[in-house]
Write a structure and sequence with these properties.
elongated, 62% helix, alpha+beta, 424 residues
Length: 424
Amino acid sequence: MKYIAHIVRIAIIIATIHPVHSQKSFKEFQKKQQQAQQQAFEDEISDFQNYVAEVTAQYDAYEQQQAKEFEEFKEAVEEKWHEFKYPSKKVYVDYDEDLDSRASVDFENGEIIIEVIVMEDEPEERVKEAKEAKADAERAKAEAEKAQADAEKAKAEAEPREKLVDKKLAKKMLNLIKTKADDGKPLLQGQIADKKGKTVKESDAESFAAESVQGKPVAKKTYKAKDGKKRTVYSVKVPMKSDHINTRANQYKQEVIKQSKRFNVDPIIAFAVMETESAFNPKAKSHIPAFGLMQLVPRSGARDAYLYIYKDDKFVDDKYLYIPSNNVELGCAYLSKIRHQYFKSITDDERAYICAIPAYNTGIGNVAKALTNATKLKPAAQKANSMSADQLYKKLIKDLKYKEARDYLERVWTRKDKYVNLIK
């Protein structure tokens, strides 16, 4: 208003000086102002488009680098190991720097597998000794003596090998217990117990690591890897506590309730989504790749959620998403956007979440298609509103195009009620 009043005052002054000339000058002035405003607007649009393109280019470069690193790492592992294991949504996999040891934590089934590989190529001295022993045995020609000598030799060689294997297995278990998630908390905190059923603390790590491999049946397999060398892999399985999933859910309880309240989403839905996505594995990584507790894809879900919260298009990578508080914030925000923006026309929460849950997994367009054979949201919402919650659930379970999305809806919907008591 001040700007308009100022122009009017200028126009009056010009008009009092020379009416005809002033009218012409004022029109020219208005035209220039409009042109300047239009140019400024176009410049802003251009700047915004350039910025979005820059962020998109960051995602392009990031994905290319991720793919390159994955292939290089896979190739290095396959040079030594009989099979390649890599992290997934619900299984954490960690290799030592020399790739001679690895640990796998199955966060869904509650099982830890520790594996080490040992070279089978013997040193020259041992080969020489073996040849000499064989020559002596042949000269003696005494089957009984040879058998006894072989048995003693096998025992002598087996004992150091067993000790070496136990030492390497225990070391890897110790390293795993000390591993921390990106919030600084131990990855297995409160989730493993000793022989007496006592929860293992950091101070107990060394003794538990030795106990966990001692006297355990060790699976072993001898193979020749891609590098042509003969190795034997030794492994032990260590069970996690029976309540390991609830233990992890409790670790993120405060953050889930906080962000659910902030973004007006039902916390039991957020918990059920999190369990279904990652089994509360803070280091979860899928093949897509998606990262963290709520399995956000950097380019799509994470970027969309960050823009929804902060009104800023930002490059969000795995390091950001592995921090549990960041992941829960963006995951709840994305769930909120689906419920309160895309499906805002659905009149009640129950039916809205029946649609929002599979949309979190497969996209809103696929949910709309299952309801109306088209991707438009308004007709889809009208269709959802015309059915009972039970009818809507059964229709989506039947008509969602992808089995993964159908299974996802079923798992989340059947798991949600067990978190009612957790949030009280």
